Amino acid sequence: MNGFALLFLIAGLGLIGWLTARARANRFDRGGAKRLHSLPGQHGMYVAMWTILPALLFVVVWSAAQPGLVKEAVLEHPAAAQLPQFEFERDALLAEAKRVASEDNATAFDPVAEQLAAPTRSAQAYYGWMGTGVAILLAFAGAAFALTRVGAHFKARSQVERGMMVLLLVASLIAILTTLGIFLSLLWESLRFFQQVPITDFLLGTHWSPQVIDANDPGKSLGAVPLFWGTFFIGAVIAMIVAIPFGLMSAIYLTQYAAPTVRKWMKPTLEMLAGVPTVVYGYFAALTVAPAVRDLAVSFGYTYASSESALAAGLVMGVMIIPFVSSMADDSIAAVPTAMRDGSLAMGATTSETISRVLIPAALPGVVAGILLAVSRAIGETMIVVMAASGAANITLNPFESATTVTKQIVDLLTGESEFDSPKTLAAFALGLTLFVITLLLNIVALRVVKRYREAYE
Amino acid sequence: MTETPHKMSARGVSVFYGDKQAVKDVSIDIAMDKVTAFIGPSGCGKSTFLRTLNRMNDTIPSARVTGDIMLDGENIYSSAMDVVQLRARVGMVFQKPNPFPKSIYENVAYGPRIHGLAPSKPDLDAIVERSLKRAGLWEEVKDRLQDSGTALSGGQQQRLCIARAIAVDPEVILMDEPASALDPIATAKIEELIHELRGRYAIAIVTHNMQQAARVSQRTAFFHLGTLVEYGDTDQIFTTPREERTKDYITGRYG
Amino acid sequence: MSKSLVPQLPTGPKEPDAKGSWRAPTDWTTHAMQKRIRRRYGAERRFRFFGLAAVSLSAAFLAFLLITMVANGWRGFTRTDVALPIDFPASGMLIERAQLRTPAADLALAGAGLENAVKGAAATAFGPGGEEFISENAWLRIRDAIKADPSILDRKMRIDVPASTEIDQAVRGDGNAEAKATVAKLQQAGALSRHFNLDFLYESDSTDPVAVGIWGALKGSLLTMAVTFLIAFPVGVLSAIYLEEYAPKNRWTDLIEVSINNLAAVPSIIFGLLGLAVFLGSWNLFGYQFGPLLPRSAALVGGLTLALMIMPVIVIASRNAVKAVPPSIRDAALGIGASPIQVVFHHVLPLAMPGILTGTIIGMARALGETAPLLLIGMRAFIVTPPGGFTDPATVLPVQIFLWSDEVSRGFVEKTSAAIIVLLVFLLAMNGLAIYLRNKFETRW
Questions:
Q1: Are B224 and B245 in contact (CB under 8 A)?
Q2: CB neighbours of C23 closer than 8 A, spacing ≥ 6?
């Protein structure tokens, strides 16, 4: 049975259970009691909960397990003996058989796959119906169990609320599971990578050329130092040279000088810079900024300037980061008590003296935290560098030369057509792990600084 | 009533916040060697009026001031008046102590630095020491001048703010309920300090504590609903007020 | 009140302590002081100018970016047509009139050699090589014209058909000299015309820049967003409620809280790696080898990945909205005997909903503009037919922009910019809605 149809069926059963229980609860013998513990609707909810949840849970588990069971069944078939031993090829043939089985009038290129199509189809049907049957049975069983418990003195509301509580807890656990999932999946793939490439080669090697990997010593061409440098150079140096002064001065101007109407319009305008998708920045960087930067370099007499220079990517990234710096700075300056500003103004300091000698020093922790977050954002930024930076891994201080970044390499490594287990694709996960750890550290430090800073003024 | 020259005089001053009028047509003189107290129930405009005396109302965009306020015969709202110099001459101490999050030394040295009053480091040291002494804080902090100003107790912080104000050698000091956030002992110290500063500076103090007004001031102005109800010698206001409203307020009928 | 009740301190100025003499007030009129003040005001003006410059330049950059995109992109919504004279009776097509009213009309027309007939007509009209002037899809337009009015098959008439990419470019001044000469010739004959048209919104990807459209990617985006919303919104709101209203303060709650705050700052590309490894990787569980859990390139995987990405945004916004509901409302509800669950679902949640929705829309806007994670999970396929469901191969708007930006043909520049305009219009609408909601419900208590 189709998955959606099954879900609708279960939901329908839940609705019927709800209506039945509510109708029954309406006719309860009150037995002299003025008020019953639970309303009819709550009895209904209780039955609906028991009808839907166990069946739904089973469907989720079953849909994860079914492919494995189908595969097992297909491998039992005599024709499966002709399958190649090598796992990768075998899986490809099984996938083809599956495709033939699920589509009308499809044909397979491989005769074995063609032969296996029929057993695949029957196994799929068998397990499919089995799953559907069990799910419906569970729904009925749950409904029956719940209906027997419903009665005049049954505390349906407390039970439903306990169920809600579990649901809420599960929802908030998903956050932890995601974090854990990210960390474990990155770690797992990275460990597989480090089995093939020594971790020291990866972290300390200065030569990066994943296009040509020596099978005997893959570590020789997978040294990530140029990527780390490029990421730092573009994201933490060039971008910040643009973003910090612009962001900080914008925040100062908008909080301290601008008329309320100007602030009302300019603040959202600057925030729009953060709302523009990065792919648009990337396109803009590649189409307009990069050629302009190259022409500039050539006019300086630097004729070998790259049209994928670090400067172009860094500049545009810096512009993208301006609103992050500015809104963090805005918040921290606003958090400085007005009394402090008044205290300085009242003794005859000019506004700029007040800002640079009192407000900024007082707001400094918040501003620094904002800059750390901005750096973490910049080094994790992908599309601008994918579209405007080069793939050539150089360690250079010259902004007109090309440099590449961790994120750009992750995309390049994973969008090529290569099998999943090669050092090349696994390297992407090792890069991802490095990026994750660094941004996490920056973030933890920044959040801690912000927290302490807030406490100081509360 | 008084023979001494008027340091500041206000004539027909009104303050508006947007459409709302907070101070209505107030005229008052502040004498050089006297402490002038502004009393009245909260929301009566006394603090607002005080803030017009060194143009701190300029920092509120919707505030508008009409009328004349003279400092030594010069209109402080005229375009020729420089607000930076004005505030150096008319210092202010706020209701809540507001030391900068810097060291005690830096708090006091801030004003002389920005105004260029100390040509050298020893001069600056001297100004800091002298100001702290005058604020009666020197003995308590002389060994920890580099500690943060925010680490002091509330009363000490307020005296630090006074030291900060007198470090730029102002001519007038405005105090906006300087003791309202402090405990009685710290309050007594502040009052004692006001006594010592009297005669050196023209002092105007806003307070909602009538005993305090009686203790520290020689002249008292009673504000009610934005208008100046009565203004005269403190002795006279507290013993034989001319206006019924003043009498009601002083005897605690409302407020 | 009698005077005796007021304790009096000793009056009169004390002599200052030995160390300091009372200095005379500063003389502000000296030349040096005046000069100093002027210098300070100069610094003030410069500082203020820098601030203004920073704001203006940032805004100017935004304006420049938008103007560039619009200037390039509006042309994506225009098309050059060639008026093609075609003589149907002379074309020698064998068409069964009766079939034109049946669903088999398309097949019948295609089988009748319409495509060749159109090419022949172009060669006749514009000389040898004339078929190069019209788009390869030009016959589709003729086909639609015939279906709309079969009687034209008896006549000779001029029908506007799309020009080829070369001609199209040359009209805009971008082509080679030869194409430009052709354009001049055609223009003299009055055969060229340019129209604003919205075909771009209805077509899908193609190798021919004249024929490409955004609908395939847009539909992919809508499907992906639907999955994202269905996962991220309930999970995000429920976990926000748990954390804000019920969670005991202990180490586990702290851990959840720290996780969510940090998830919000994890680079988006990491979520792509997660999606790749978890949803599309192979699994070994209980001795069974699982293939990919979900089909590659599908809106389902993209939606799930983006849902994980924006969930923290929704959680944080929802928590703030829930926190902003005054405690008095909870007390009031508890006071009349509502259970904690009822307090939240009857009172707190409805009041917090505008704030929650604002945060959700902002999160969804972020997901709509996101590219990098979707590249990794393979939503970069060449999709000619719009996806029919959540598990069909699909691409999304930003990825389509990325793919077109990589094309060498000049014709794709304006199509890329046009796609960017479409994307920005959607984002602007979403952000506008968020701002509207925020302003409308801002001061409720």
A1: yes
A2: B169
> C401 vs A283: CB contact, 8 Å cut-off?
yes
Q: What span, in angstroms and rounded, lies between the C-alpha atoms of A315 and A234?
A: 8
CB B250 within 8 A of CB B68: no
The Cα-based distances of C195 to C172, C184, C229 in angstroms read 13, 18, 38
Q: What helix, strand, coil percent values describe chain B, rounded to 5? A: 40, 30, 35
- The answer on C424 and C346 residing in a single domain is yes
Residue type, position A25, single letter: A
Domains located in chain A, CATH noted = 3-154 (no CATH), 218-457 (1.10.3720.10)
Alpha carbon distance, N-terminus to C-terminus of chain A: 60
Query: Would you tell me how many other CB atoms lie within 10 Å of the CB of residue A437?
Result: 12
CA distances from C285 to A187, B43, C305 (A): 18, 73, 22
**Best residue in B238, B247, B253 for a mutation probing chain C (most C CBs within 10 Å):** B238
Give C-chain residues touching B88 at CB under 8 angstroms: 26, 28
| pLDDT (mean) for C330-348 | 79
**What is the end-to-end Cα distance of chain B in Å, rounded?**
28
Going along C1-110, which residue ranges are E strands? 78-87
SS3 A153: coil
Alpha carbons within 13 A on the beta-carbon side of A148: 5
- What's the domain range around C257? 215-441
Report phi then psi at A192, rounded to 5. -60, -35
Residue A380 near residue C268 (C-beta atoms within 8 A):
yes
- Give the domain CATH number at B29: 3.40.50.300
pLDDT at C10 over 50: no
> Does residue B1 lie within any of the structural domains?
no
Q: Do C28 and B85 touch (CB under 8 A)?
A: yes
Q: What is the structure's pLDDT at A447?
A: 84
Q: ipTM surpassing 0.90, yes or no?
A: no
User: Whole-angstrom Cα distance, residue C308 to residue C236?
Assistant: 10
Chain A CB contacts of B165 under 8 Å are: 346-347
Which range is least confidently modeled, A16-30, A356-370, A397-411, B134-148? A16-30
Decide if pLDDT at C411 tops 50: yes
Nearest residue of A to residue B166, measured between CA atoms:
A347
